[in-house]
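Exercise: predict the fold of this chain.
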Amino acid sequence: MDDDQQYYLGLRSAFASEYAFLIKAQRFHWNVEGRHFYSDHGLFQTIYEEVQEIIDDFAENLRKLQLFAPASLGELSMLSMISDASDGLVAEEMLQVLLDDSDKMVSIFRMMFEIAEEHGDHGLSNFLADRQDAHAKHSWMLRSSLKVLSG
């Protein structure tokens, strides 16, 4: 596989991972319970709505490169670096799982930013930098929420 093919596969994988992250945050929003229900429910909603708002832009960035955005459940699952969550997680576990995934997304977007810059795709690299920053903020909020629970 040549460099361009690896780049394109990486972008499609980043998209699939972002979509899987969105689904997981929404799942946690729907299913969270516990003492801090209201704040956890709201945090998960804030996160999934932010990601949902940009997912179309991400797909359009792929199309600008003549790539098809992964759109089937099988393809998304195959390409994603974000795994499904187990059933029966308690709120603190949900927060930790989503934090770990958000940190992973920061790394994915950092790596894809650098590759996009090498390819001279500066508009895309700006988008990827914004996604890295958005996930850094999600991670901060999730990490802070975990401190409240354990403190």
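Check your answer against the key: The mean pLDDT is 95.
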